[in-house]
Amino acid sequence: MRNPLALATLPACAVLLAACGAQPAEQGGGDDDYGSVTIGTGSTSGVYYPLGGALAEVISAEVDGVTASATSTEASVANMKLIDSGEAQMAIAQSDAVSQAVAGQMEFEGTPVDGKVLTALYPNVYHAVTLESINEDQDYECFSDVDGDRFSAGPAGSGNALASELIFNALELGFTSTDVQHLDYADTSTALRDGTIDAGSWVVGEGHNTLLELEATDPIHLVPFCDDEREQITDSYPYYSDHVIEGGTYSTVEDDVDTIALWNLLVVPSDFPEDAAYDVLEAIYGNVGDLTAVYANGEDYFVPETMAESSVAMHPGAVRWAEDNGVELPAEVLPESGS
User: Fold this and answer.
1) Taking the alpha carbons of 210, 212, 214, 217 in that order, is the dihedral positive or negative?
2) How big is the CA angle at 152 (ends 149 and 154), to the nearest 5 degrees?
3) Do the beta carbons of residue 47 and residue 13 sit within 8 Å?
4) Are residues 230 and 278 in the same domain?
5) Domain assignment present for 10
């Protein structure tokens, strides 16, 4: 049976121009002006950016007094820093980055971000990737076998880099002593082809375009996480869960591959007006077709029930919307829990 987090092949996404024509208007419910909302997303080649553009168009059209626009960023970690600085009033970020940010850990040590979650959007899957030709020499049977080899962990400040560092830490591998490079997905593909790295990580929905492009010229090998490795990771970080990439998801990978996955969350500052938060969710779940138009694989996930997948305390406006729409949230994400 297919893992419930598994994603279908990712189609090419058209990049949307975010709605930004109207002048900012005062938004009631807080001292700050949230009439103009900037949404932190990711690179223009990923899913965050077109999805953020679709969210901006929906919010601008459906939420009175609010005009939203999407901006390209270095993704999850950078987005949480933008929330902290006030440069973004809404952001998409992986649950590990959000959890670290609000707890004031790792890159946010001593400077916790005062943010809350509106909803969970869709899951990302950790792909540890090498080429079949490289694996013939390296024989990667478990993820820990990459320790000490040349490994691309994603750009500094990205959710990919954070996930890789957390995984290395959970498995007690030498993230700093390993020859870690911080390349984006396109450069990681090039480095694999050139033989200047041995493996790299993609933390994306299954069937990401850059992986399909890579295997079109060079058969890939996905390095599995063995049972004890997945247990160590999920025990260390509850926002990660077991996941299976089914054989055939990639044309050059025949067998199922065990790995982990985590959810992408929509985050706002804690002082985001409660009524506006409520209206944003009403707009999102009333116009899901606009979101699936740019990310078709989100169809199974852009439903109210996925709100319960948040690993971080939710905004009071989101809690009220969930209650009004029959969505049961776990106690640990309610604001009163202080989680």
Assistant:
1) negative
2) 155
3) yes
4) no
5) no
Q: Which domain holds residue 147?
A: 124-262
Q: Buried b vs exposed e over 218-248: b needs ≥16 C-beta within 10 Å?
A: eebbbbbbeeebbebbeeebebbbbbbbeee
Band of pLDDT at residue 336, cut at 50, 70 and 90: low
What DSSP letter does each residue of 61-123 carry, written as one string?
A: HHSTT-EEEEE--S-HHHHHHHHHHTS-SEEEEEHHHHHHHHHT-GGGTT----EEEEEEEEE
Q: Are residues 129 and 220 in the same domain?
A: yes
| CA proximity to 334, closest of 303, 309, 302, 312 | 312
Q: Do the beta carbons of residue 51 and residue 92 sit within 8 Å? A: yes
pTM of the model: 0.81
CB neighbours of 16 closer than 8 A, spacing ≥ 6?
50, 53, 54, 56, 57, 70, 294
Residues 162 and 220 grouped into a single domain: yes
Looking up tokens 């970080």 gives: 237
- Structure confidence at residue 32 (pLDDT): 52
How many domains does the chain contain in total?
Answer: 2
Residue 14 lies in a domain: no
Does any domain span residue 142?
A: yes
Domain boundary among 208, 227, 262: 262
Where is 202: in which H helix or E strand?
Answer: strand 199-204
**If you count them, how many residues does the chain have?**
339
Which contacts qualify for 326-334: CB closer than 8 Å, 24 or more apart? Answer: 333/117, 333/308
Say which amino acid occupies 322.
A
DSSP-based three-state secondary structure for 232: helix
pLDDT digits (tens, 9 = 90+) for 59-109: 999 999 999 999 999 889 999 999 999 999 999 999 999 999 999 999 899
CATH code for the domain of 274 = 3.40.190.10
255 & 128 share domain: yes
Output Rg (C-alpha) for the chain, integer angstroms.
20
- State percent of the chain over pLDDT 70: 89
Side chain identity at residue 309, one-letter code: E
* Same-domain status, 129 and 236: yes
Same domain, 133 and 196: yes
Q: Across the chain, what does the average pLDDT equal? A: 88
